[in-house]
Write a structure and sequence with these properties.
BirA Bifunctional Protein, domain 2, 11 helices, rod-shaped, binds zinc ion
Length: about 350
């Protein structure tokens, strides 16, 4: 085979091979095989030494033309490949702007907020006004006007955090009652929800911060029957008409007489179960007739007016309502827990 034939067959091979090459890597392989240091065209150029001198210019020109042709073929294919690769990349990176987007996760009300909403619904439905007060409170309102003078033993049960000597984090929402009674004339009918504080260690049933709702009614001829009727209505609106209340004598410095109030267990409707430890009753509220001393200290004449008050822990209601075993779940902010209330 002479040089001319070799060149023709070589270019034909290049042309055929390129038709099957579809990426730049393959293209580079063909280029090296033809034009690289050990390429076939390069080999032909090297073989020039064996060509008779008189034929060298013609053959040399032939090889150079073949080389230019090969380069042109490679470039043409290279352009085709580049266009194809760009098109592929664009197709891969294509964004369908019409596709629906997964929305931001919907939030949910905290179980304490849910329970507070329900309880407030019940009391505002009975004509109670919702009143709030400061969490950083004067000792005067938190303790003294609630009939707990300095060194009164009842203060031990409500050990709290002191901001200063006479300023505390409130241990109950009762100081709001004092604030209202010192500024308004009866009749008074309020509920005070809010955050309260005690110097308690954290465990499954205790937290140094928790939530209470207290109610206060002051007027002429307000009796314990009114208290019982109000709490019966509260219990039945919250849990159903078959729920009753049970009053047990108790002691609070700010009420006299005082009573712990149990409700029929809403889990077993009084039959006895794990929740109520078999008794059929759940302890839910503290209550009593406002101690006349408290009324007098707040500037309300106890010989003319009487009143009742009650307090309920919102954590307690939430834990009963949603069968929550550990109070800490309410404060840890674990989304797996909270999203169940959506
Ligand atoms: Zn029960």
């Amino acid at each position: 085979m002479n040089v001319q034939e070799a060149i023709v067959s070589l270019l034909q091979t290049v042309q055929e091979e390129l038709q099957h090459i579809a990426d730049s890597q393959g293209l580079e392989g063909v280029r090296l095989r033809m034009l690289g240091k050990k390429g076939e065209l390069t080999a032909l150029l090297r073989a020039m030494g064996q060509v008779p001198p008189e034929d060298r210019p013609a053959i040399g020109q032939m090889i150079n033309e073949a080389r230019e042709k090969a380069v042109a073929l490679l470039d043409a294919r290279g352009q085709w490949i580049a266009a194809r690769e760009r098109a592929l990349a664009l197709a891969n990176e294509r964004i369908d702007v019409t596709q629906p987007v997964p929305g931001p996760g919907l939030g949910a009300l905290h179980p304490i907020s849910l329970v507070l909403g329900e309880v407030l619904d019940v009391f505002t439905g009975m004509g109670f006004e919702v009143v709030e007060g400061p969490e950083v409170e004067l000792d005067l309102f938190n303790f003294e006007m609630m009939n707990m003078p300095p060194n009164h033993p009842a203060r031990d049960a409500q050990d709290t955090f002191y901001i200063e000597d006479k300023i505390v984090l409130r241990t109950h929402t009762s100081p709001v009652q004092a604030r209202i009674m010192t500024t308004r004339k009866p009749p008074i009918r309020i509920v005070c929800p809010g955050r309260v504080y005690r110097a308690d260690e954290v465990d499954a049933t205790h937290s140094p911060v928790f939530h209470q709702l207290e109610g206060l009614v002051v007027g002429e001829d307000v009796t314990m029957a009114d208290l019982k009727g109000t709490l019966d209505a509260f219990a039945q609106r919250l849990y159903g008409p078959d729920i009753t209340t049970r009053f047990r004598p108790s002691f609070f410095p700010f009420t006299e007489p005082s009573a712990e109030v149990d409700l029929t267990c809403s889990a077993c409707r009084g039959k006895g179960c794990r929740v109520c430890k078999g008794t059929g009753w759940i302890e839910v509220l503290g209550s009593g007739m406002v101690n006349p001393r408290v009324l007098d200290m707040c500037g309300i004449a106890s010989d003319r007016y009487s009143g009742f008050a009650f307090g309920v822990g919102l954590e307690r209601i939430a834990m009963l309502r949603y069968d929550i075993q550990d109070m800490r779940l309410l404060y840890e902010g674990d989304v797996r827990f909270l999203s169940q209330f959506r």
